[in-house]
Fold this protein.
Amino acid sequence: MSISNTTNRHYPNSSYPELPKIYLDGKKYKDEDGDVFVMIDRMYGGLFKESQSLIQVDGSTYKGHIKTVNTRHAIYKLTEDGRWFNSSGMPVICPKDLDANAKLKEVQAESKKIIEDKKYQELKIKVLGKVKKHGE
């Protein structure tokens, strides 16, 4: 893992809401000034799904489905594997007013449907591509 990626560094402090335990228990590093930080997953992107990306702790880009979850108070992103992110792209614990398991099942079902739809479209193109149009 490259520690040179400064955007995925998180310097723990009391003013930031609690990070998920997986990050707090992760390996601690020291920067050039001796300050301690942990590496975190971070969501980046704009208004459109195509421009969203999740850069993981190891520097790779997440390939799974990401769902937007709206609450009365905030907007969150949820991955297929159960990671939550706030609207700033920072990892957070699932909001207390949401059922984490129900939301996780929703995002997994959406992902499965997207995959099935893609396979159907590919098969449709393959089959119809072989069929000659009337009069050809």
Observations:
- The helical segments are 21-24, 100-130.
- DSSP finds two helices and nine strands in the chain.
- The first strand starts at residue 9 and ends at 10.
- The chain has a mean pLDDT of 81.
